[in-house]
Amino acid sequence: MIPMKQVVKTLHDQVGGPLTAAGVQLELLRMDYQTKAPDVAERAVKIQGLLEEAMSEVRALTRNMREQP
Amino acid sequence: MPYEVLLVEDHRIVRDGIKAILERTAEFRVVGETESAADAIQFCKSTPPHIVLMDLSMPGLGGVDATGEVLRHSPQTKVVILSMFDDEASVVGSIRAGARGFVLKRASLDDLIEALSTVAKGGFYLSSQVSDRLLERIQKGDLEPRKLPTALQGLSRRELQVMRLVAEGKSSKEIAVLLDLGLQTVRSYRKTMMKKLGLNNVAGLTQMAVSAGLTTMQAPKE
Q: What ipTM score was computed for the predicted complex, to two decimals?
């Protein structure tokens, strides 16, 4: 059985880190294309929305795990 | 003149991305990047930036303790915390340590520039998700300040810092580097702290630190 603290740490480092990195790269893509190709920028925003849903889930899951006795 | 920013983040790809975002503004200039809090403290001692944008969770000294150390050496610098999580302990701890902003790591980071601008001009900034949760908890009345257990109330701020790091498995040598103190000074803090608490081993100290909520991370088992 993996200790809860280790799961929380993995979620933070191994899941949260790459999700944040992907979000930052999409932000740059959006900035690059918002004038020259607004449709590409719009797609980047949609992907950011999906990514944000995943990040919110990870946050909620971690919060619940931390609050468990 | 643009505001000088030091980036402190252990994930290089995130650091590079944030740097690229900030460099597209005329308002900010990244003057340094470090991947650890200890390096950030050294940087601020020699060339204090206007703003330190600091990740909350890093190996070694975390963002909360690092904020206190940065401000001790460079009181004019403004610290903004960047965090994946918005738990109460992190938010309140960061603000108590002197941070002027707390920005949640999100997929869009659209509030990052706003946060840095607000803080650079002397204001405070919390991401809306963070302030919403905080206000909700205040309304529910469950955000009462957590009091330290009586046994720990006689410890100084430094002793509490050392206690937390010992409980997280750090050696005296590592603590000396992290807090920029002499090895003998750390040993002396450890000795005084153990005496004050009536403890004679690290296991008891770790147990006490965890139950007091000083840390959630216990030293790895041998």
A: 0.83
Which of B81, B108, B111, B132 to mutate to test binding with chain A, by most A CBs within 10 Å of its CB?
B108
Query: Does A63 fall in a domain?
Result: yes
Instruction: Say if A29 falls within a structural domain.
Output: no
- The backbone torsions φ and ψ at residue A45, rounded to the nearest 5 degrees and listed phi first, read -65, -40
- CA atoms lying within 13 Å on the CB side of residue B10: 19
Determine the Cα–Cα distance for residues B24 and B72; give it in Å rounded to an integer: 31
A4 located within any domain:
no
Q: Which of B121, B134, B47 is nearest to B94 (CA)?
A: B134
Domains of chain B: 3-140 (3.40.50.2300), 150-211 (1.10.10.10)
A40 touches chain B (CB under 8 A): no
Q: Which residues of B touch A (CB under 8 A)?
A: 11, 13-14, 17-18, 20-21, 24, 57, 84-87, 105-110, 216-218
| Total structural domains within chain A | 1
| Domain encompassing residue A62 | 34-69
d(CA B85, CA A32) in angstroms, rounded, equals 28
- pLDDT tens for the 69 residues of chain A, in order: 777 777 877 887 788 888 999 999 999 999 999 999 999 999 999 999 999 999 999 888 888 877 666
> What does residue B103 show for φ and ψ, rounded to 5 degrees?
-115, 130
Please give the model's pTM, rounded to 2 decimal places: 0.77
